[in-house]
Design a protein that fits this description.
By secondary structure, the chain is α/β, with parallel strands linked by helices. It is built from eleven helices and 15 strands. The strands form four sheets. The protein has a six-stranded mixed beta sheet. It has a five-stranded mixed beta sheet with strand order 1-2-3-4-5, with helices on one face. It has a two-stranded antiparallel ribbon with strand order 9-12. Helix 8 crosses helix 10. The protein starts with 11 loop residues before the first helix and ends with a helix. Bound molecules: zinc ion (ZN) (2 copies). One zinc ion (ZN) binds next to loops.
Length: 307
């Protein structure tokens, strides 16, 4: 999850899937969801990872120490929270566990940092430090490749779509052995459950198309200074999709500067210079309520013309 704002639009089921949370900075609108998420996870056996900019460990500790944990060590399950605080060339890592009432048991570990926050088999997450009068991190997710299902292939094998396809994709992303058996299991309403076994590699050949992965970039709450814009362009370079703030119209750029935010025009320029394919704007100042179209028009004009 990128940023931790108000979470009421997300169901518990969706939130329970979250394993890593990347917080751009700890202004309230980006961090107020921490408590709701923590509440939901308490009493579960789970490990969750948080990442944020300088002073992040202190901010998380302040949140954790605001509550009373006198009964929590009796819980059967243990919730473990790992917090990584990013600086320009190093990162600090600290761990908290519910069975220790979320008290840190040692000093944070000091690690080298050169842009990569997380590397999985199928994707990685990189960050850049940006300026919002406080440190703020821009984030990018790169899939190593993407697995698409060929409908014709399914038809030829007589296999229906269903939840098994999710497991199939996961097996491919995790680089499982092609000689491993793979069970396709399905049940239609009113019918008996059915299953068939394939060699994973064979199934992959018949029903999957492997294509280059997508790059998705998320940038918010930064001043439109030349240094920031250069770093943002670098981070977003060749993204399929850029999500970026457009807090103000360019005619109010003095206000934008004062509040360390981008204008819609600057957002469009970053997208154009980075060569992104698709642009989504968010984080509009409340003064534009009902006039969001104007922000979009300004950003899109800059995106198309590059000026
Ligand atoms: Zn904000
Ligand atoms: Zn902010």
């Amino acid at each position: 999850m990128f940023d931790l704002g108000e979470l009421s639009n997300l169901s518990a089921r969706e939130l329970l899937k979250v394993s890593h949370v990347f917080v751009t900075h700890t202004h309230m609108d980006h961090f107020i969801g921490f408590d709701s998420l923590l509440r939901l996870l308490l009493g579960r056996d789970k490990e969750i990872h948080f990442f944020g900019p300088s002073t992040f460990i202190q901010k998380v500790e302040a949140k954790l120490s605001a509550y009373t944990w006198n009964l929590i060590e009796n819980y059967e399950n243990n919730l473990s929270i790992t917090v990584t605080e990013i600086h320009s060339e190093r990162a600090l890592k600290q761990r908290y566990e519910s069975r220790n009432r979320f008290r840190a048991s040692a000093e944070p570990r000091d690690l080298a940092f050169s842009g990569n926050l997380l590397s999985e088999q199928s994707f990685s997450i990189d960050a850049a430090l940006l300026d919002h009068k406080v440190d703020c991190i821009g984030l990018t997710l790169k899939e190593n490749y993407s697995v698409n299902i060929i409908k014709e292939g399914l038809k030829e094998l007589g296999l229906p779509v269903g939840p098994w396809l999710g497991e199939f994709k996961r097996a491919i992303y995790e680089g499982c052995n092609p000689d491993d058996p793979f069970r396709v299991f399905w049940k239609r309403r009113g019918e008996e459950a059915q299953e068939r076994y394939f060699r994973l590699g064979e199934l992959k050949e018949r029903i999957a198309r492997i294509s280059p992965g997508q790059k998705i970039t998320y940038i918010t709450d930064i001043i439109g200074s030349p240094e920031n814009i250069a770093r943002a362009v670098d981070l977003a370079s060749q993204s399929q999709h850029l999500f970026i703030e457009a807090a103000f119209l360019d005619k109010e750029r003095n206000m934008a500067r004062k509040k360390y935010h981008l204008t819609a025009r600057e957002a469009g320029l970053i997208a154009a210079r980075a060569g992104v394919k698709e642009l989504t704007l968010f984080h509009f100042s409340p003064r534009y309520f009902g006039r969001e179209k104007e922000l979009y028009q300004e950003a899109m004009a800059a995106f198309r013309s590059g000026a």
